[in-house]
Amino acid sequence: MEVRNVLNDAVDLLEFRDRVIKASLNFGHLVVSTSLQCYIFSVKNWNTPLIFDLKEGTVSLILQAERHFLLVDGGGIYLYSYEGRLISSPKFPGMRPDILNGQTVSLSNDTLAVRDKSDEKVIYLFEPLSGKPLGDGKPLSHKIEIVEIALDQKGLTNERKIAFIDKNRDLYITSVKRFGKEQKIIKIGTMVHTLAWNDTCNILCGLQDTRFTVWYYPNAVYVDKDLLPKTLYEKDASEFSKNPQILSFVGSQVTIRRADGSLIHISVSPYPAILHEYINNLKWEDAIRLCRFVKVNMKLTFRKSLIWRGCVCGSMLLKFLNTN
């Protein structure tokens, strides 16, 4: 396997004892599965990977989160740390690991979501560190079959959200932690074919009918549904042909695979992600300067902090934005 640094064009050649089956590069680590072993490389050092043996040489899926990664083979689902330590192996009745894929499994630092094959209206939620069901143990249920799921990657555990597309191609968002509360599933899009969360902040993108759409702040629906359209960015997506699939949303770049296998890269504005970071760190003065620089309506993202955190500085900022 050849690894090329696109910044300085340096090349590293990685050699393996057995045939490579699956590989995944994300969150500063390359995870490679061969027919007998799993290799974990740090992007800072390609010379000394961590290696452990696999029970089965039939790995069909690798998913990565910032703190750990997931392997799926014919025997089950296994979560490992980047030190090669087995963390947990979640199970549920009727689980079919042989047919799980990137559309029916999603992983974040604190949540694992798996769509049930025997009942495609159900999503099972687990705590990765223990492998136990999340919250009150009840799975997430929808009214019709679910075809794709995705967990957001950043923020507090209690605010973790899952987005999913159902058989009607409607896009919904809901919280993964309910603890007996009635689940509030809200529709935020229609005719959505594929989706992905950003890796550094909770911005969602998707291909919606003939448009590429970015939801800069999906949680706006929990404040006021009428605010959501003002957080959208849309552009024509007819160039992607039929049945494209979003592979990743890293930084400000989205990678899409077309039906013919070719890859297309789309760049989105970096400013909303920077604004998310300023809000999470309560850097209000920096946020004001960014709004003045960009000169667009970004008050919706701030409203999250005003309502959920009750920050006095935030109320002053909102007053400023309402007058500009």
UniProtKB/TrEMBL annotation:
Residue intervals of the IFT80 second beta-propeller domain: 1-271
Listed under GO biological process in this entry are:
cilium assembly
List the GO cellular component terms. Answer: centrosome; cilium; intraciliary transport particle B
Matching InterPro entries:
Beta-prop_IFT80_2nd (IPR056456), WD40_repeat_dom_sf (IPR036322)
One Pfam family, please name it: Beta-prop_IFT80_2nd
Q: What is this protein called?
A: Intraflagellar transport protein 80 homolog
The gene from which this protein is expressed is LOC103061007
